[in-house]
Amino acid sequence: MRRNTGSHRSRAVVLAAVAALGAGVLSGCADDGDDGSAGSSGGGDSKGKTVVTVGTYGVMGFKQAGLYDEYTKLHPDIKIEENVIDPASNYYPQLLTHLGSGSGLADIQAVEVGNINEVTTTQADKFVDLSKADGVKKENFLDWKWAQATAKDGKTIGLGTDVGPMAICYRKDLFQQAGLPADRDAVSALWAGDWQKYLDAGKKYAKKAPGGAAFLDSAGGLFNAAVSGGSEVYYDKSGKPIYKDGPAVKKAWKLATDASASKLSAKLQEFTKPWQQALANGKFATVSCPAWMLGQIKEYAGDKYKGKWDVAAAPQPANWGGSFLSVPQAAKNKDEAVKLATWLTAPEQQAKLFEKQASFPSAQAAYSLPQVADAKLPYFNNAPIGKIFSQAAKDSPTQVLGPKDAIIKQNFTDVGLLQVEQQGKSAAEGWKAAIKTNDNALDQ
Amino acid sequence: MTAPSGFTPDTAAPPAGQGGAAPRAATAPAPDPAEQRRRDRRSRRYRWDVRWSPYAFVAPFFVFFAAFGLFPLLYTGWASLHQVELTSPTHMEWAGWHNYSRLWEDEFFWKALRNTFTIGVISTVPQLMMALGIAHLLNYRLRASMFFRVAILTPYATSVAAATLVFALLFGHDYGMVNWSLGLVGLDGIDWQNGTWTSQIAVSTIVIWRWTGYNALIYLAAMQAVPNDLYESAALDGASRWKQFLHVTVPSLRPTILFTVVVSTIGATQLFGEPLLFNTAGTATGGADHQYQTLGLYMYEQGWVNLHLGRASAIAWTMFLILLLIAAANALFARRLRKSQ
């Protein structure tokens, strides 16, 4: 008897597995069909509602900040579904393949700033012109943010979400122990105007480095922070790649390798596990801090360091990172998608996103809203982050972007600077390796 | 493949008395024509069934193979002769052999080839030797032998992603368990990520961990087919366990060993997931100095990071040709082995 049920059960398991596989294959095929609810997790309650899908990478924060819930409350006939692809490096090639085949696209697709130029120059005809959508006001956005997603013919294919205005996050307690000023205005003044002064402060710090904590986390982070302050970085205005001799790149490279040679850096690679562990163990005193970095610090440094971190202005204004929302022509619910994208990137919503997720608005109209203007973060010793980052965002130069920005930047930090920092190669060797890898990446 | 030409369905009953007709047919009453036609039809259907059904049964595999194996292979070959970018995959520009000749001068390609070879050797050789040893042990009469046989297969059943992420943590520089244990015995921590050999050994460890049990089970199956009297007579001759292993087990396993060598070599040539995930930054460079970038990883970097589909296709085809070479070498070797026996 028992045996019997056992074999029944196992047969049922096999059947269920086969059915699940079959259903998976079928739904995989059906995804491209016109049934918007295919693969929906909600099931029953999607009946009669229009499902708007949003394709994102990493944590964009819309869901976490409750914006989807708010929107569906305002529009009861809409259901929002977010498809996250992690890591971000897997997201972009997939987006390109889907654009190429015109299928498998979400109604709204997020695009990272490192890829926005390539998308704008090579794929503009596959996207809806959002500048003409109802309720979109160009003047709401930072000029340079708006320009980044606008093609030569004036078509704007992406609405800015967040930006990454630069600050420096520092450990107030370590600064005090090392005999440096600890007050955020004094710290800002310490290196105002020049990244070199930041290194000088580091040298002072290193003489008394409390508890063996390094001055900064990584040469790569410093490189990105410094290079992001240039107006022409990897490409010049005519679109020619200048990563070999551009002044911004060379200057940032020198700073980063100097920091490494002076042993100011903890020799980490940002966003890797060892970097997170070093944050949790308080192994460095400062980190180049675009607004989105605050969330990372808070998450990985943990409660132990609450109130010990603080935020000072960066030596020079810069912008590192940010994203856009776009609507592909092949989207199933184009009109609803445009409405949702417009709403999500409106100043009010960007302010809410900042309040909950510390993603800094690209809508300058949001800066005067109380959620931004009066924002203080207890974790960072109640630093007035709204004020600090608005100032940095307003002062950031309009950057010339190029199609291969993301990969060029990655090769400088993950090949060149990593060879210098972690493999003990000379600055010249690291430079050569980075250039060679970049030449190889750009050569068609 | 065509229907038998001599078979004409409308012929009436076979002419009586034709040489050697079976006696039963001769005694049977003359069938009425309609019944005869039905029988003919039935037997025709039956013959067709016997003849064609097997093809129908094997067809799904070949249809799927043609759609998902052969076509991509040929299309990749076609794409490798063009300049294609992932930003517009349908726009192809004829480039002739450029992608291949470029690979010839591409130091990253040669480095990846070299890495693939060294990682292949330092993962395959210890892996197969260990598998052989483990199989030999499992071949003894053991208590709960079933448990051990299943347990040894579990690494194979875990996903590459999960296993690699755990190993990447174990091999961490500051907080990894491997360096921690080295510290316990007074040794300095090793930078597993950044050294050429250290990183390749670390990647190989993951491969070895995952595949040793799988190969051990194959060896075990082959070992159980070795006639027991060989061992008995060897024991009578005074051969120790070790001598028995060397002179009875290993020679009997030769074809199996050859098979696992070929399969492991193919696996090593296509190595991809482990080196990709071993890099904690998740990039496809295979380390700062590309020190553990394999061919598979380089192909991925060219196609999906640098977006050059044409060049990635050329790498894919080069890998395919390398595998064909390996298969040919193996066939030669196997033939000589058979002759020598």
UniProtKB/TrEMBL annotation, chain A:
Keywords: Signal. Residues 1-30 form the signal peptide. SUPFAM superfamilies: Periplasmic binding protein-like II (SSF53850). This is Extracellular solute-binding protein. It comes from Streptomyces rhizosphaericus.
TrEMBL record, chain B:
Pfam families: BPD_transp_1. Gene3D superfamilies: MetI-like. It comes from the Bacteria. Residues 8-29 have a biased composition (Low complexity). Keywords: Cell membrane, Membrane, Transmembrane, Transmembrane helix, Transport. CDD domains: TM_PBP2. PANTHER family: ABC TRANSPORTER PERMEASE PROTEIN (PTHR30193), INNER MEMBRANE ABC TRANSPORTER PERMEASE PROTEIN YCJO (PTHR30193:SF37). This is Sugar ABC transporter permease. It comes from Streptomyces rhizosphaericus.
